[in-house]
Write a structure and sequence with these properties.
single chain; mainly alpha; 2 strands; elongated
Length: 190
């Protein structure tokens, strides 16, 4: 299954990255979309998706977006620990990490300080948390592979992720954060 996307970035990419902005419905549209992506983004030619390291899982788009939100939630676990009212917990759990808020609040990262991120994300915003998580996940891998990860999510999320700046956060820290999020997500699968 990994090799299915090696020469077919249009099937991997969210449709917002395609020239038409529409999902692919037939083979002719797929060929045109592949050609467009390869011509528009030459970095796709440099690396095959089958070579992407395990830090970026080959999951369906909703799971990738959920992983990004969990990564961001773990980065702000200390602030999320302070969410105690029932209404706030339900709202946050629904928008960021359904069925995982309690696990995130109990996670060892909740004892550490939140990451220093500019601009500060709105913790209850699904879009902000997905974009921040994408920015953090992209720091976890080589830049050749990061673009494949951004293709998986809507273009507006990738553009929003580019605005976040994280201070005092290494690639190793990012890999550990993504690994923690993967373990949490896999332990509490849907």
């Amino acid at each position: 299954m990994k090799h299915a996307y090696t020469c077919a970035p249009a099937h991997w990419a969210h449709h917002s990255w395609l020239e038409t902005g529409q999902p692919i419905r037939h083979e002719r549209a797929a060929r045109a979309a592949h050609a467009f992506l390869f011509s528009r983004y030459p970095q796709l030619v440099q690396v095959a998706l089958a070579d992407v390291p395990a830090v970026l899982p080959l999951w369906p788009r909703p799971a990738c977006a959920r992983l990004c939100r969990i990564v961001a939630a773990l980065a702000f676990a200390r602030s999320l620990r302070r969410v105690v009212t029932a209404r706030a917990r339900v709202a946050l759990a629904l928008s960021v990490a359904p069925r995982l808020l309690a696990a995130i609040q109990r996670h060892p990262r909740a004892g550490a300080a939140d990451l220093k991120v500019e601009p500060a994300p709105v913790l209850s915003s699904r879009r902000d948390m997905t974009a921040l998580g994408l920015a953090l996940a992209m720091q976890a891998v080589d830049s050749r592979y990061a673009f494949w990860w951004s293709l998986r999510l809507p273009r507006e999320i990738a553009e929003a992720a580019a605005h976040y700046r994280v201070h005092g956060f290494s690639a190793l820290d990012a890999r550990e954060l993504v690994a923690d999020a993967q373990r949490l997500m896999e332990a509490h699968s849907c």
